[in-house]
Amino acid sequence: MGFKDLFVGGNSENIPVKVQCTGCQRITVVKIPSNKPFQKWNEKASCSHCNATNCWQKV
């Protein structure tokens, strides 16, 4: 549990998912709400390295 989780109600409703950007090949782990499908999350997410949008795929 991270420091931020103390203020947002814990991380029990978030699922960690390992993803890779198709633009710059960056790999990271993100926490996606359990009630949101991956594709819906991907539509709004962008890569902070290459600024690509809708570019994530599960690893």
Structural features, described:
The chain is mainly beta and 59 residues long. 12% of the residues lie in helices and 31% in strands. It has a 3-stranded antiparallel beta sheet with strand order 2-1-3, covered by helices on one side. The chain is globular and about 30 Å long.
What's the gyration radius in Å? 12 Å
**Helix/strand order:** EEHE
Largest sheet: 3 strands, antiparallel
Helix content bin: 10-25%
Structural class: mainly beta
Oligomer state equals: single chain
Mean pLDDT: 86
Characterize this entry briefly.
This protein has 59 residues and is mostly beta strands. The chain contains one helix and three strands, in the order E-E-H-E. Strand 1 and strand 2 (27-33) form a beta hairpin.
Which helices and strands appear, and what pairs or packs with what?
Layout lengths: L13 E8 L5 E7 L4 H7 L11 E3 L1
Antiparallel strand pairs: 1-2, 1-3
Key words describing this protein structure:
12% helix, globular, single chain, 59 residues, 1 helix, mainly beta
